[in-house]
Amino acid sequence: MADLYYDLHIHSCLSPCADDLMSPNNIVNMAMIKELDVIAVSDHNSVLQQDTMDQVAKTLGMTILYGIEVETREEIHVLAIFRHLEDVKAMGAYVSERLPGLPNNPDFFGKQEIKDVNDETTGVYDILLLQSIDADLNEVVDKIHAFHGKAILAHIYDRLNSIHNQLGFIPFDLDYDAVEVKNEEEKEKFIRQYKSKKPVFMNSDAHYLTDIKERERGMDEQKFREFFGLW
Fold this sequence. Notes:
Elements: E1 3-4, E2 6-10, H1 24-33, E3 38-44, H2 50-60, E4 63-71, E5 77-82, H3 85-97, E6 113-115, E7 121-124, H4 137-146, E8 150-153, H5 163-166, E9 178-180, H6 184-194, E10 200-201, E11 219-220, H7 221-228
Parallel strand pairs: 2-3, 3-4, 8-9, 9-10
Antiparallel strand pairs: 1-11, 4-5, 5-8, 6-7
Helix pairs in contact: 1-2
């Protein structure tokens, strides 16, 4: 079976750190220009863009999964990826209940805009999404599984909020499903370091349209489908 080309870590303009042009239609159209097979938008600590992403992707013929990038109490980022919209919404409600109430300062952090299917702004989320929720790493992973999702440790080596930056290692008893790295060198490093056979994803963590992943590094389609239960 051929490789499947994906990008499961794209931020929309709901994430304050993302560019204003990261609207649903722009994201899907750019992914199609780059000939990707499946995408997921995984905004920081929120799923408020997921309904629109679902509608736009299906209208334009793009296969979509549903995501959220959760920041744990340890300030570790975890991608939570789901097959079904209702499951990501359940995860979003759990995260929202545990998000501190610090208001966003759009002049400092950036805007947090919610878009409709025409890329028109329908709302602005006022609580800062760039915060740790009141739940630790193990609790977040367990909750992702409770809602039938996959817990992927985000950018494990090279970011401020990576598990290696925050803890220095991946705990041997952590029930995570996969990791995310930025290149083949980091993939080989993870395999050597942990002697692991867990899936390794190379996503873009796109905050700008041009950052969305190119059709260059895929995953065996059967392995991808089996991992997410897409049969």
